[in-house]
Amino acid sequence: MNEYINLTLENIESEHICCAIGDKKHQKGVDCKKEWIKEKLKDGHVFRKLNARGKIFIEYEPIETAWVPICGKNYEYIYCLWVAGSFKGKGIGKELLEYAIRDSKEKGMSGLCTLTSKKKKPFIGEKKFFEHYGFKVVDSIKDYELLVLQFDNNEVPKFNDHARNMKIDNDEFTVYYSPECPYVEYEVQELTEYAKNNHVKLNFIKIDTLDKAKNAPCIFNNWANFYKGEFISNTILNANSFEKLIKE
Fold first, then answer.
1. What is the pLDDT of residues 216-229, one digit of tens each?
2. Of 156, 176, 189, 246, which cross-links 138 as Cys (Cβ 3.0–4.6 Å)?
3. Please, what CATH class does the domain formed by 162-247 belong to?
4. Which CATH number fits domain 4-160: 3.40.630.30, 3.20.20.70, 3.40.50.720, 3.30.2420.10?
5. What's the CA gap between 59 and 45, in Å, rounded?
6. CA-CA distance, 60 to 103, in Å (whole number)?
7. Tell me, what's the pLDDT at 102?
8. The pLDDT of residue 81
9. The pTM of the whole model exceeds 0.70
10. Chain-centre distance of CA 63, in angstroms?
11. What pLDDT, on the 0 to 100 scale, is given for residue 203?
12. Is the CA virtual torsion 184, 231, 207, 73 positive or negative?
């Protein structure tokens, strides 16, 4: 039987958070992520992981306090469900999602929702996996879709109007980011140095409050790229991928 751990204020300092395990360059990002989780636990944030050294976890919280531009009442929002490497194909993802479903029902929630896409994108949930458990598309913005699993007849969540813009009033390359992902802090630093050394205009806008997240100008999970005022991707960039992108 698989053993799982839910992060709490009592164990978070001694437990890893699955991503960026043992990679010292991402330690600042890990620390920022842990501090973010500590603050979010009071909102009902759940981070549940397999008791093993690997990227195996689910993370969710009530939609009212979730740092995403989605509005709704009495639903849980799944930020991430990740089972990587040799742990795939062993039913762990099933167990993690089924736990979230049971937990949500026990809390009297109306259902769960999550962000997916028509075509597979990095850092976005696998649509077919969620559909297998009864999740259905209830809203969409371009290739991105909001999937919902309903328990009752309560109104389903939807993307906020601001998220439908997918545009900003700035032609320079602009990155929106938040501390939700431990990989982010290092890449912001790396891109900042690259831009400085290569005399490239690059703007960063940090999503560090619930209000900013709810009013993001695009779909948003932890990172969003804009160029010439248009949303181009949700891919977390490093210096090499950024250089390749701006040369295309």
1. 999 999 999 999 99
2. 156
3. alpha beta
4. 3.40.630.30
5. 7
6. 11
7. 98
8. 96
9. yes
10. 13
11. 97
12. negative
